[in-house]
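Feature request disguised as a bug: please show the residue count (218) next to Transposase Tc1-like domain-containing protein in the output. Example input:
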Amino acid sequence: MNVSTSTAWQRLKMKEIRRITSELKPALTDENQRARVEYALKHLEPCSLTSLSGIKPTFRDDMDVVHIDEKWFYRTWKTQNMYLSHRENAPHRECKHKNHIQKIMFLSAMARPRYDAQGNCVFDGKIGVWAYTEWVQAKKKSQNRLRVTWELKPCHTVDREKSREYLVKYVLPAINEKWLESDRWNTIYVQQDNARTHIKPYDPLFCRKLLGVVGILG
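Example output, currently without the count:
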């Protein structure tokens, strides 16, 4: 605009110029847009799509869908606000390098909560949260442990094999354990995001393990 900041602020207050927020949009092809529409249509109630029903198209309640997602978390922060009493001392926090704080990836699974006719929560929808960790042997000796001592370390990379392992070892048994008995024999869908490390819907090993879990069919 080639004007000073104060002049631009005055023009903004006088409403001679306006401020907008420009968001970056995804570049979707025709195939991507078609896939989005098909995905939305699959989540509509079939009975609401007929002209004889007399109701507008409505979305399904999706009570049979379990959403899973991964998230990185740092073990601590450089600065952290705390509230202490006058008798408490500030905790001593230290690390080797403030720019290389260790982070851990967690896998979480959840579904929609259920309520009975009286409004009481009978299922909170929380399936579980698991950390991506692995047991490795120490390569060097230190003051804390000997060499080749087994240690529990966070996984630095999560590939398709690790995703399949956690789905089979943790997610499916947790769904089978916490799912309501009344909905246990319905098809349950595990909804993944678009990460490349996730397994395919018809992964052979996943499908074989799936048959061994009672009540989990989708």
